[in-house]
Amino acid sequence: MGAVFPTVFSAARHAIGIDVGGTKTAGALVNLDTGAISARRQVPTDCRRGGEPILADVAQMARDLIADGTAAGIVPVALGVGVAELVDRRGQLFSDYRIRWKGLDVQGRLAAILPTVVSSDVRAAALAEARYGAGRGLTDFYFVTIGTGVSGVLVRDGVPYEGSRGAALVIANGPTRYHCVECGHVTTKVVEDIASGPGLVAAYGLGRTGEDVLTAAHAGDPAAVRVVDHATHELGRVLSLLVNSLDPAAVIIGGGLGSAPGLYFESLSGHINAGLWDGDEHVLPILQATFGPDAGIIGAAAATIMNQVPDHRPDH
């Protein structure tokens, strides 16, 4: 899960999970047997401040959750942090697109509070779905999270695939060419800039969040419907290519937008299916994540019980 685990917390019942995203930082106490959340905390991330203030917020949230747990008779024994950046096997960040922790010993500094594991947010969320949610019982699946950003990861035997460096999650950062049928202008953007929440808002020109655009689309606003269709078409092309290449048993879609009921998920599912191999009668299961935006919190906590023995499936 993108870190070295000095201790295996297999006997731990509760851990703290904190999900550091581009918009908000959310945390909770997590029951490691069931994935159930208690004592939720949340603050705005505000990436413009730089990395140190965000790290200070995470440390304070961890302390607050320890206090919450103590008041409830719960003693968390580990801290898991999922972050919306690239994270290597040692728990070190090697990107700083939003959360500027590159070069900081985040794992080491938080370990002064509790033994800490740092991983990428998408691998954390995928782990939550594999252990407790929609991916439980599947031999493999491709997990996608769609919110402020767009990321994805292949999960096999309950373990999210890291890649050689921890970078096997950047699915929506390749350029795509879009030809406007009305004016002829050609725009080159990365898919994340089109399919994410901020991408929807930028294209629609109204509202503050991607959910606002979805609300307008559900109400029948033609402009909002076009924006959602274009976003899901572009992301659907990427995902159908991955499905054709990897042949997963299912696709699980999470995050704030991906877990929203209605148009976005339905449209994205249709575009994924439209890009699959012609003549293949297999029906690809496309599922919504069980835990939605909470998957990152739950999976960050669950990452603390992972280990590096050869058979390192979550239930072993």
Commentary on this structure:
This protein is of the alpha/beta class and 316 residues long. It has two domains: 14-132 and 294-305, ATPase, nucleotide binding domain (Nucleotidyltransferase, domain 5), CATH 3.30.420; 140-289, Nucleotidyltransferase, domain 5, CATH 3.30.420. Helices cover 34% and strands 21% of the residues. It contains ten helices and twelve strands. The strands form three sheets. Strands 3-2-1-4-5 form a five-stranded mixed sheet. The protein has a five-stranded mixed sheet with strand order 8-7-6-11-12. Strands 9-10 form a two-stranded antiparallel sheet. Helix 6 (210-218) crosses helix 7 (222-246). It is globular. Residues 1-12 and 307-316 have low confidence and may be disordered.
Supply the key terms:
316 residues; alpha/beta; Nucleotidyltransferase, domain 5; 2 domains; 5-stranded mixed beta sheet; 12 strands; globular; disordered N terminus
